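Hi all, long-time lurker, first post. I run a small reading group and we've been trying to get comfortable going from sequence to structure in the token notation. Rather than ask abstract questions, I figured I'd post a concrete chain and ask someone more experienced to write out its structure so we can walk through it together at our next meeting. Sequence below, copied exactly:
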Amino acid sequence: MPAGKNIIDKVNQLKEKLADADYRYYVLDEPDISDIDYDMMMKELEKLEAEYPELKTADSPTGRVSGEPTKKFEVVNHEVPMLSLSNSYNYEELDDFDTRIQNLIPEQNYEYVCELKFDGLAVSLVYENGIFVRGATRGDGTKGDDVTKNLKTIRSIPLKVKSDTYKNFEVRGEVFIKKDDFEKINEEQEIRGEKLFANARNTAAGTLKLKDNREVASRPLNIFIYYFRTNDKPPVSHFDNMEILKKLKFPVNNFTKKVSSIDEVKKFCDEIEVKRDSLPYEIDGVVVKVDSLAQQDTIGSVAKSPRWAIAYKFKAKQQITKIKDITLQVGRIGTITPVAELEPVFLAGSTISRATLHNFDEIRKKEIRVGANVKIEKGGDVIPKVVEVIKDKDFSKLKDFEIPDKCPVCKSKLVKPEEEVNYYCVNYFCHAQVQGRLEHFVQRDAMEIEGLGTSIIEVFLKNNFIKDFTDLYELHKRREELIGLERFGEKSITNLLAAIEESKKKPFEKVLFALGIRHIGEKTAKIIVKHFGSIEKLESASAEEISSVYEVGPKIAASVKSFFEDKASLQMIEKLKKAGLNFKIDESKKVKFNGNFKDKTFVLTGSLEKYTRDKASQIIEEFGGKVSSSVSKKTDYVLAGEEAGSKLDKAKKLGVKIISETDFEKMIG
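-- Answer (accepted) --
Happy to help. Here is the structure in token form:
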């Protein structure tokens, strides 16, 4: 029997009351009902939704915890890239930033907005018709993981927004765990006899990637929202956006402040640094943004950072401890990295027991010795490092550290190239290097073989199931042996072998990156693949031909050439070819050459009807064009959609050709 009007009204009333209670409790910190009343309303809503399933909607508070574990996090493309910020560490660098802004928007008045820089995980939340439909991690800035179910467990995030003006929009924010809550989590871990978490930031990030959102809901995640984007009624300033977010009942940090000069920015930074330790959450600096969105658009971005914003990082917190030992790590290409083993000490939210010493020159320069008292800090409040040695009365009795001549793992002789500071183990089959190459090969940005982590790789190596990553594609022949291993079962091995088989579909650029050629990162792999098209053409290219490719250069070219001159590398590639991996661009998917785009520079502004900005950019680049974030005299075309901003005005002023979406499609043909 369908629900009557009275039941529908009751359900809607309960939803609104529960949503308002969440807002008052988690955002305003002003609860107006008791926990018992809240629980009774929730149980009543659950009962009505069970009786009338058609009344359960996506915005229902009963759906915050689904009870269904996520099997795999889908990848989400961000319509507008989630850029990272450039850092500044002193007021001279802030002055330099201000001077750049003056030069980029001459004869214009501008204001800044100052915000706290939270130590958490950046996420994006998308709303359609006022309903929260998708949430994703920042990932690499262009794509991230869909963690919608997990974000729904954060009760300060509204599942539905009531607004006549704003219905379709994106917000971004930082997920974090408060200091007190983090201490409670570790107290519970200790009571259960489980390993303590290192710090609040990593715990928040790890929690957001748990596959069971019931477990996520048991963790005290919080969020502050600091970004708003919409085409419904585009706002004019960042500070206005913050006010809009407050009215839409999003959690916005109260320390956000608009100022009129860089001197006021510095004053704000000073005030916040004094308050830093008394705040209930971890911060590591202040974010400074140009307030006007039109001016932000004019100023533009470079690489992966906006030019209209900067992060001012507070001075790193320091502690004094003692070096108990110096051990050596061996990287996947044989790099030897000395590591200081420390007497454990608590610093900036976590217990530190190790710190990188970078290289042996660093040890000599800082006179680092075993037994010495040292001052340590977290570089950028993340990576522990030794700042200086404290030369007390016992320091002179300590011995200088002797640089070893053999690899700590395989005992091969170490080699130091003349032009470098690093020492290397040149034994390609050194266990540590093999392990490192395998971990690199299977990582998400390479072949993405899910379920093949560090511990499983160690087991497979120890049992001689694999000697290098080419052997992964032979594992299906040993299925029954694998199932027989301790802690493994038929289901886990079936899933692993399926993931290995699925990895054969990865494009050539991923395969090239996965090979682990020195100096070849993701971006460089894409550039090389786009230029040469196949492994055969790359293998036969001279160092001069490789280095002539835009953004490659002689150092990378020499590394690539050296790789292909090694017989072991060539044998490895042949084995991977036979296994079915891609070593050339898929011609069926490759967009053919188009003279309308080759060597032309495009700037995109406004919203297109048929294309996301990412898709339009991809088409331009595949046809041989380039996409820039700002308009200049060198711009060939400005592709303008609806609600085009100041880039359109600048294009008109400079006489740059402006094209519509229809013109764009004609150029594509």
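A couple of things your group might point at:
The CA atoms of residues 67 and 153 lie 11 Å apart.
The first helix runs from residue 5 to 27.
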